[in-house]
Amino acid sequence: MNKTTSRSFTALLALLFCQTAAFSQVTYKGPASSSDSTRISPFSQNVDSIQIKPIFSSADSVFPNSAKVKMVRVPPAYAHVVYRGRFEYLAPTTGKTGVELIKALHEITAANFHSLGYAQARKVMYGVADNVEINGVRGILTAYSQVFVPGTSDNGDNYKEIGDRNGDGIMDPGINAEHSWPQSFFKKAEPMRSDMHHLQSTFITPNGRRGNMPYGMVQGAPDYKLLSGTKRGSGVYEPSDRTKGNTARALLYFMIRYYDRPIANMDKRNFWTDRVDTLLYWNRMDPPDAMEVRRNDIVEKAQGNRNPFIDDYTLADRIGPEALKAF
Ligand SMILES: [Ca+2]
Ligand SMILES: [Ca+2]
Which of 11, 134, 148, 262 has its CA 20 to 30 A from that of 44? Predict the structure, then answer.
């Protein structure tokens, strides 16, 4: 860096610091539009809140892996975070970033965790965690297809696609469990196989079409696509915009929970390292909603631990791409 560049870089930093200093404290309200706002509202009794003080905000950056080049605002890094109420379990992460934060989250998510076993995990998923009520009707909103299938059963075979509602030309006979981190990468070992935080309820065909492909942004014409926007092509599988963040948070959870296990029986660079920036972007563009928070609550009741990336979606950027890529 020459002197002139160095000077303008310093000036830029100073400018950014002034800008962020103007909103030196941000109160994070928890995920938007929660159906259970009394529990997570930071304004009621000053409990159940996350207060975040940004220290640095980087400039707009060009997102490298998009089909179109998009300008993406990279959120600030956070110097100091105060967790209250139900978020207090995240207090050990305060002040931590990078690898240190990964290790803290690894410990936090281990506490109270117990595996349900695969049969029971799927029953809880179909019958309770992914079984939601929409317009007074209970059923499952399938992840890749975003098609709602009415029912109350805890058996995936009882959720048949009526006609071809997801638009892939096939009438699916039921739903099954998608492992966001493919099972072959950890040889179907427990407890990874049954960990509900990385399982998604999907129609059988979109699940099969994904196989063990990495998630990413499809370049050019897809060779498989659904009406929801989920598609496959150029060697990657791209979930619909409504579930991009869910998928990213499932993979982030899986990595911080199991990095010390044999989970990388794969082309690590292709599946993980090269995708980290995309996952961080998806986490920002599709932040947690009420349905995802509700699911986190139910999974906690069932297997004892929460996905912290849903409770505080700034955690992913606090870890940062370098530490994530180095796992
Ligand atoms: Ca179909
Ligand atoms: Ca979502």
Answer: 134
In whole angstroms, what is the distance from residue 60 CA to residue 75 CA? 9
Q: Which ligand is nearest to the CA of 240?
A: 2
**Ligand in closest contact with the CA of 172:** 1
b (16+ CB within 10 A) / e for 150-161: ebeebebeebeb
In angstroms, rounded to a whole number, what is the distance separating the alpha carbons of residues 264 and 192? Answer: 12
Chain segment 206-227, per-residue pLDDT in tens: 999 999 999 999 999 999 999 9
pLDDT in tens, 27-70: 444 443 333 332 333 333 446 777 766 544 443 333 333 333 33
User: Taking Cα atoms as reference points, which of 119, 75, 40, 117 lies closest to residue 310?
Assistant: 40
The two tokens of residue 193 are 């196989």
Distance 135 CA to ligand 2 centre (A): 19
Predicted TM-score (pTM) of the model is: 0.82
